Amino acid sequence: xxxxxxxxxxxxxxxxxxxxxxxxxxxxxxxxxxxxxxxxxxxxxxxxxxxxxxxxxxxxxxxxxxxxxxxxxxxxxxxxxxxxxxxxxxxxxxxxxxxxxxxxxxxxxxxxxxxxxxxxxxxxxxxxxxxxxxxxxxxxxxxxxxxxxxxxxxxxxxxxxxxxxxxxxxxxxxxxxxxxxxxxxxxxxxxxxxxxxxxxxxxxxxxxxxxxxxxxxxxxxxxxxxxxxxxxxxxxxxxxxxxxxxxxxxxxxxxxxxxxxxxxxxxxxxxxxxxxxxxxxxxxxxxxxxxxxxxxxxxxxxxxxxxxxxxxxxxxxxxxxxxxxxxxxxxxxxxxxxxxxxxxxxxxxxxxxxxxxxxxxxxxxxxxxxxxxxxxx
Length: 377
Description:
Blueprint: E1 2-7, H1 13-19, E2 24-30, H2 34-44, H3 55-63, E3 68-72, H4 87-91, H5 95-106, E4 110-116, H6 126-138, E5 141-143, E6 146-150, E7 156-161, H7 163-166, E8 167-169, E9 177-178, E10 180-188, H8 189-192, H9 232-247, E11 267-268, H10 276-279, E12 283-284, E13 307-308, H11 312-318, H12 321-325, E14 327-328, E15 331-332, H13 342-350, H14 355-376
């Protein structure tokens, strides 16, 4: 049984993906968003309220025996100024700096770091380059999908990678959501040395063999409550915005993801910030009984086209929480605390991960650790 620590934990999606393998147990968690902590505690009966930037918590990690670090860290710009004293000078002030510091001090056997696809192009690629340089060259970890490029004289000049080897999309893992994300997997070279040269794990799994859902039609819960429907005024505003953007040659604007005529519909990526994450995932769910109805909080009556937002429960299915990740003895154990608002539910789910993607990566990490540990005996 491998032990994990779950930092920048959110509501525990990465942890759950690993737990589904049946071969890990989590021993320590850290999250500083009080609302996410509330949901995490509800799901795992553990309070993850910890700050990874706090020296006392770093000391606690150092005292904790674990094998794999899990972290869904935020994307931040790294400083290019300073005395150029290595990664500590370059990264200081970012969450990744603290993650790198923990890796350097603790040297876990392996890690999984998750981030948005835009991490690769952030600051014209400099952010990702710094991350990879830190993990591979400064901390001495073998990162899956990253290789060395040499110049004509045979000198190593830069770490290279194939984007397709480190960016995975939830739509290829049984979930009807177009959600590309960066996954960085590393193994400790100082511990395993040359054994890493022969591992079978050379790139991340590209898909899941067994489908969970065929398409959006399998997860949508029709005849939704009136509160989820757009007011006519709001829908008209969205239409004007889309027309204005279209006139400029842009494809921005609202999207009805299950529009009539779409075969095998899938959603766009759901976002922690709500906003376009909701508007790009509108649903056609006509009900005569709600058309023109006045609803508290809406300035105008409900639209006459049957257009609504997705419900939090539908987002939970898109991420593999509801309907998959927490099923025990044929009973779905996933839920939010009763007093968590819909606003927070959307935020927490949009900020989380697609559990089935994590599960497939976890299987490969565990299989590789088994292989490496056997060679170490």
